[in-house]
Amino acid sequence: MQERLFDPEPPVDRLAQQENMVDLGRPRAGPSPPAESLVRIEGVWCGPCPFRPDCSSMATEHACAEPVDLASVRFHPRESYGEAALDVVGGHRLDRIVAVPAQLPTLGAYVPQVRFRRPHGPLPQRATYGIRLDQIIRRAVRTADEVRAFAGIPDSAALVLLCFADDAVLEDLWDDASRFRSVAAGGWDVITGPSYSLWHRRPRPFHFHSLKRSYVAFEAFQQEGATAIPRADFIDTRDVERQADWFNANPCVEMVGFDWMTSRGQAHWDTDVDLLALFDNLTGYRLRYLINGTTTFPRIRYLFELLGSDRLTLSDATAVGPIPADSPTSVDELSADMLSDPAWRRRLALREERIAQARAALRADANPAVGKPLSIASEAA
To answer: Could you tell me the CATH number of the domain that includes residue 351?
Structure first.
């Protein structure tokens, strides 16, 4: 049996598990949250919950309800609110996670992502390129040097490993200590903490567990000698406060990553940016942000208005062309022209044009109101 880096539990039989699970996997959007209730009544399980002081969802649609899939069961109040699973990762609190100072490269405003599927040829000069975790974990773990040589990344560009991937890939990273150490030793200029999902409709202890694992993995990357940044995410304001407290207690951390690949609907987006604005306020407007998955001009502009042009780096899966909703093929089986050099470069130019326009609009504003949300957040995506 392979060594497990983080906890002693045996790996779950994922094939058997999937038969009983609702499909909430990335990169598809999760199920829509239930409609907001007119009358605010606490969830039936909230009164005796041991995590009540660290949750502000008691009277919201995120209060623990009946399990929606197998992944929810062991975190349900009937199963002691998931305390056994949380004990394995040292509980839900973050205060035992300690960061060490790290020298981060200058990432620039945009990090285009490459894929380890076909060579792009020599790529244009950019401050940074990125690649996602699922692209470098195959039969063997690819290194940064292998990716640079394969994709034609200039030597002067930084290379970021984005641990934002399908949950199954992230679970494999958690389960296999050897692979985790190989990833950490891969020579990346920056590694992001993994984005274990905070799906709506799952119990709040599930969210605590996912968040804690992201921070545990970040700490482990640093302990293995890698340059890493933590990943943050929020369901409610208490999540914001707890994580802001951790960043304030670890002032050596200068950058945080967010994976907003599934933040598509307007209501979801509005909630995300409201919580982000609160987080930025509570951390003193000092952090730099690497946000993955925001691609439309109104949202790009809003983020630059909110955070400032010198503190925001955006990224997205540049190399993937539009995939028809009724396509019977997987991403790996797409025809070569979908990932051809001309298509990749067109998408790169489009992203960079949108970001340049957003930053230019910000500079043109008489009052950019950095740190203050503006009305553009509610514009149609």
So the answer is: 3.20.20.105
